[in-house]
Amino acid sequence: MTPDDAAAVAAKIDVNDLAERIGLRAVEVIADLHNAQDKDLEQLTVEAALSNVHAVLRGFAGAEDPAFVQPPELTLSWVATMAQRGISVAAIPRCYVIGMGLCDAALRKAVHGLAASEDVKWNLTNAALNYLYEYCEKITGDLVDHYQRERELWVRGADSVRAELVLAILAGRPVDLHATSAALGYNLDRPHMGLMVWADPRNPDKPPLQALKRTAAQLAHQLKGMELLVVPAGSAMVWAWTSGPALADELAGELTIDGPLLASIGGPSPGVDGFARSHRHAKEARRMAGVFAHAAGTVTHHRQVALAALLTHDLSASREFVEDELGELSSDTERNRRLRATLVVYFHENMSWSRTAERLGVHQNTVMYRVQQAKELLSCSLSERRLELEAALRLAEVSANLSPGGLAGSGQPERDVCQDDWK
Q1: For a pLDDT cut of 70, what percent of the chain falls above it?
Q2: Which CATH number does 3-156 carry?
Q3: Which of 16, 39, 61, 225 could potentially form a cystine with 220 if both were Cys, beta carbons 3.0 to 4.6 Å apart?
Q4: Angle at Cα 96 formed by Cα 95 and Cα 97, nearest 5°?
Q5: Does domain 315-401 have CATH number 1.10.10.2840?
Q6: How confident is the model over 55-78, as a mean pLDDT?
Q7: What is the enclosing helix (H) or strand (E) of 364?
Q8: CATH number of the domain at 181-310, please?
């Protein structure tokens, strides 16, 4: 067995797919993580799994000593989030048991597929599994310690009481309106707009909590909010609400913030139910900021991405929808991207050759030729399933992110999809 053999094994594994299977399985079987309405926690779990899969494969391929590995930053953030939400520390080792089983199977399959002697395969299998088990033993111990520290800090902190009350409201538990408002220092009997501010995961420099809170306050001021409630929601994110009779929802599409932060906003909604509803919308907008890979400094308003959020509630099903509707046109080639972009404008201009050509800056004959090429790749006429085709065309530009594993592993795309297409 040589270092090249280990690297060949690691290269055979689809890390995004493996991480997705680990994360989704953990969310499915561990009661503390299972919340069908909390896509945020599900995605954080997949991202943590991805960071560990990368670390295991890198360490195995590089013949590192697992006794000296450190928990990945994304995993520490996941643990801090669990500590702040009161999720049991027992969820950590249970996740790693699931991860070990699925990683074990993936490593064995990768070794089996190598063109090598049986002795080499035997040695590789043993080396890979020994590394995996020793890695998990070391990391779970570190993470349990990290959880305990984070939980102790959280319980002693001033934000913890407010956060517990907020979680109770969001979970739909009955609360005394006036007593809870007094405890939060925030009037629940008003129209609210939910906000979220978080650090750009692509930036290695994480801003302090105060920077996140300060940005939430700036957004609330621009939206003409009278009151502000902010609670931490992990090591690099805050949830916030602003309220008042004159909330300026129409300004939301014009807001920007300083990098390396991003933000999302839900629409205004009244009372305790509105408090939870606007937060759900802000969470959906935050999810879509990830799907569309919005740049740092972007504020995503739910109203601008509401249709896309509905269509991508199940990311994997959305990807299948794109493939089923577009067929060969869904494949990610330069030619197909050009044809899809032409069709998007063609539909937007109500199938006008001349207006499409003018908007694209090409000759009308070029538009006609591209549309004809697209028709030949589709299994139906453009008018037969126009609504489905338009939705699939817009989702196709972010198809790499249409799965929890793909979204976890996504970086900045070559180009962004315009939010205005979803208004």
Answers
A1: 96
A2: 1.10.490
A3: 225
A4: 90
A5: yes
A6: 94
A7: helix 364-377
A8: 3.30.70
